Amino acid sequence: MKINFNVPPYIDTAMDYIAECVRNQKICGDGPYTKKCNEWIEKNTGTAKCLLATSCTHATELAAILCDIKPGDEVIMPSYTFVSTANAFVLRGAVPVFVDIRPDTMNIDEKKIEDAITPKTKVIAPVHYAGVGCEMDTIMDIAKRHNLKVVEDAAQGVMSTYKGKALGAIGDFGAYSFHETKNYSSGEGGAILIKNPEDAERAEIIREKGTNRAKFFRGQIDKYTWVDMGSSYLPSDMNAAYLYSQLEVADKINEDRRASWDHYYERLTKLANDERISLPYVPEECVHNAHMFYIKCKDIDERQALIKHLAANDILAVFHYIPLHSAPAGKELGRFHGADEYTTKESERLLRLPMFYGLKPEQVDLICDKIEEFYA
Ligand SMILES: *Cc1c(COP(=O)(O)O)cnc(C)c1O
User: Fold this and answer.
1) What is the mean pLDDT of the chain?
2) Nearest in space to 318 (alpha carbons), one of 310, 326, 330
3) Residue with the nearest Cα to atom 5 of ligand 1?
């Protein structure tokens, strides 16, 4: 039996909830299920305002507009991330300034941020890799001292915390992803988390094509009109219904993933103690959501050989980001500040193992057996 790398989460109630949307002819955006999802996220993260979006990419674009990014502005981010972290700001004319990562968490190295700040810097965009929090106290302190905004790419961080605070709800804005590869999914989807209530009204307007339609629906004004720049970032309520079926049982999904993660960790500790591989590190301040289980091999050749060995055994394991500064668009549109001490080297060693809701202990055992076999 083949073991896939990812299986999208599915909860039975999704069928009923989607059927309800269809029966009630409520399938456009901002229907009852979108409201339930927004409220769930607000309640569980403590953010002042949450708005579901069509993707994490769009949520980040919305955040970039809310930060008033102008051509020539600079945004500090890791190079080891998904293209959307950079694109959201590039679309507004900004220059991504890439900073090296920490080898232990694969997150932006908070100690290397301050040196990359110039008079053009507007935003720091930390990415919480694998759902493990960045060193947010340090990042928030730097932002405060230099009068910068913080936009958290928390695509992978739903249900994770840093010092008890939900990832995505610490910076000025946070972006979640509900893509089918994430812990909670609506197929394609995302959300923006807004810390300051003053930003909420403008966010609603930009998300609704630059109109004050949301206010109109609440009966606060008697007609709606074009008041700002904007786009269309509302998902269909059917997508929200699919997502809500999972949010309702978020703890159950989280515990299931955590059990698989712990099982991998325990089984692979011997190989790590023998210094054949490295295991992920989770700082004491962080509670993670088991978004990902990765190991690090000696180098890229060993990693590619292990991917092949696992594939030959019907196990799909994959590598991850090619650092953005080495990609064609990254070279043209951004720059790397300082030395690339770890970004390239560590990304080449990293291998992601199958991880999804419903992964069975026997499957984890089989995968670990095959990894041990490779190193024997
Ligand atoms: C998945 C992901 C995104 C993009 O999410 P979409 O919802 O597909 O737009 C952005 N950043 C990171 C770090 C991601 O993992």
Assistant:
1) 97
2) 310
3) 56
Q: What is the mean pLDDT of residues 163-169?
A: 98
Ligand 1 touching residue 9 (CB < 6 A): no
Torsion sign, CA atoms 143, 81, 361, 14: positive
Q: Which of 52, 179, 185, 322 to mutate to test the pocket of ligand 1 (most atoms within 8 A of CB)?
A: 179
Neighbours of 352 (CB within 10 A): 18
Instruction: Confirm or reject CATH 3.40.50.720 for domain 13-247, answering yes or no.
Output: no
Give me the pLDDT at residue 1, please: 86
How far, in Å, CA of 81 to CA of 324, rounded? 7
* Rounded Cα–Cα distance for residues 55 and 311 (Å): 31
Task: Give me ligand 1 centre to Cα 324, in Å.
Answer: 14
Q: What is the 176 CA–ligand 1 centroid distance (Å)?
A: 8
Q: Is 107 in the pocket of ligand 1 (CB under 6 A)?
A: no
pLDDT above 90 (res 186): yes
**Res. 98: pLDDT tops 90:** yes
| Cβ of 81 below 6 Å from ligand 1 | yes
Two domains, one topology: 13-247 and 250-375: no
Instruction: Report domain extents, the chain.
Output: 13-247, 250-375
Please indicate whether residue 190, judged by its CB atom, sits closer than 6 Å to ligand 1: yes
Residue among 357, 217, 218 at smallest CA distance from 291: 357
Ligand 1: centre distance to CA 276 (Å): 31
Tens-place pLDDT, residues 330-346: 999 999 999 999 999 99
Pairing of strands 293-296, 350-353: antiparallel
CATH topology of domain 250-375: Aspartate Aminotransferase, domain 1 (3.90.1150)
Is 266 a residue whose pLDDT tops 90? yes
What pLDDT sits at residue 279?
Answer: 98
